[in-house]
Amino acid sequence: MGKAAKFSTPLLCHSKLLCFSVLYLFSSLFLAVYFSFSTTKCIFRSSPYDPIQELLFSYPSSYGEHKYALPTTRSSCNSPVYFSDYWVALEEIRKLCSNFTPSALKYLQRTDESFGGNLSFYNRSSYFDHHDNETQIPCGFFKRFPISNSDQISMEKCHGLVVVSTIFNDHDKIRQPRGLGSKTLDYVCFFMFVDDATLNRLHFHNIISKKSKEFKIGAWKIVKVSSESLYENAAMNGIIPKYLIHRLFPNAKYSIWIDAKLQLVVDPVLLIHSLVVRENVDMAISRHPYFVHTMEEAMATARWKKWWDVNGLKIQMEAYCENGLEPWNSEKPYPTDVPDSALILRKHNVATNLFSCLLFNELEVFNPRDQLPFAYVRDKMNPKLNLNMFEVEVFEQVAVEYRHNLKKGGASVGPKLKKASSDLFGNGTLGKCKEYLLKMWGESHD
Ligand SMILES: *[C@@H]1O[C@H](CO)[C@@H](O)[C@H](O)[C@H]1NC(C)=O
Ligand SMILES: *[C@@H]1O[C@H](CO)[C@@H](O)[C@H](O)[C@H]1NC(C)=O
Ligand SMILES: *[C@@H]1O[C@H](CO)[C@@H](O)[C@H](O)[C@H]1NC(C)=O
Ligand SMILES: *[C@@H]1O[C@H](CO)[C@@H](O)[C@H](O)[C@H]1NC(C)=O
């Protein structure tokens, strides 16, 4: 906005009054134009009249699909996103999907007590530098993912773009995507993974009948996961579809992961087309609204008790500090080290699939907070990931956020540990992250 102040004195300014009036007029005009363009929109559609689907599903009012949308505070942005014409985008995505060659990455087949093998640090590290497509990458599925055969078959039939979400432990409501183009449901598969607790609620509201073997609610195909045999922690189970999406949908070429607290309001074809294909990247993900350093996120995770095991967080961060995690700096080819991972758009290729496997392995050993190992894995892995980390304002305009279901007695993410200090480096020693922290503070105090 500094531009208005930089006008040099024009000839017009022979009369002071006229001059001020003209200046005033121009600045008001400038501000009006500025605000009407930038504060209302970060996304632009080539045609606002793209054919839009009718209402996908009507919920009984008792279910309250749309309760508690969270207001967004930001609305202006530096790099708005322009969406292509729906039919052009659809045609291009269809073409890209039709000459699909499966990713050359090979996966380790084994059986183990734990789904991901609970691999040692040394073992996990040995897969970061990938220079031989014959190497078998450990990538979960060391035991069966408990879904029905018919669901598995329909997942394998998804050949183009898949949109995936999960609701475990009845944590959220099923929300229908809005703004879908009229042909989108013919080309895009929507899969929602749920457990028994979530199914019970849907049954209770008469949204599904327990007798039927296959469930569909609006756009979403519902897949029941018998999660008792997986992880104890529901969030960890949610990590399986979120990060092993390329294994659950081995024939999908593109995917969009969306947390169930979000409702998609832009067509997934347009999203993949403008945020991934046109940007020529492997993956697109939103930036965190405030943090740029992993350690800021780790400290917030401890302080706001987003994960109960503070000592475990400390061990994790120290392992990363000791093995080369650096605070964010302008030499990194990415604008931040911290994503908001509620929406992830992927092209399923060697780099993205490898990244997803490596990240999953970290989460399985430490905790399901996926922002913590994000930069460590991204910066250490080879081949390098081509990432579009788009602005949070764009994120907020392509997806609307709602509150989670409230639970009686408060949602607990794990056993209560009395002794856990809520501050990551609360006892005065910075430990193995001393160098990281000094660099980070040095930078932010400049
Ligand atoms: C994973 O391995 C660590 C030791 O390497 C052990 O302490 C932990 O209990 C194991 N976790 C699981 C779920 O097996
Ligand atoms: C890593 O662990 C897996 C599973 O135990 C094992 O099959 C593999 O050989 C190990 N890899 C390395 C490099 O140690
Ligand atoms: C692995 O396969 C991909 C896709 O076929 C190819 O682009 C890449 O060069 C291969 N990488 C290595 C290290 O052979
Ligand atoms: C602080 O924590 C570190 C690492 O966990 C530990 O080694 C150290 O003994 C602790 N210091 C105090 C004063 O408790």
From TrEMBL:
Keyword DNA damage part of the UniProt annotation: no
Source domain of life: Eukaryota
InterPro entries in the cross-refs: TOD1_MUCI70, TOD1_MUCI70_glycTrfase_dom
Record-annotated TOD1/MUCI70 glycosyltransferase-like domain positions: 110-404
Keywords: Membrane, Transmembrane, Transmembrane helix
Segments passing through the bilayer: 17-37
This protein's name: TOD1/MUCI70 glycosyltransferase-like domain-containing protein
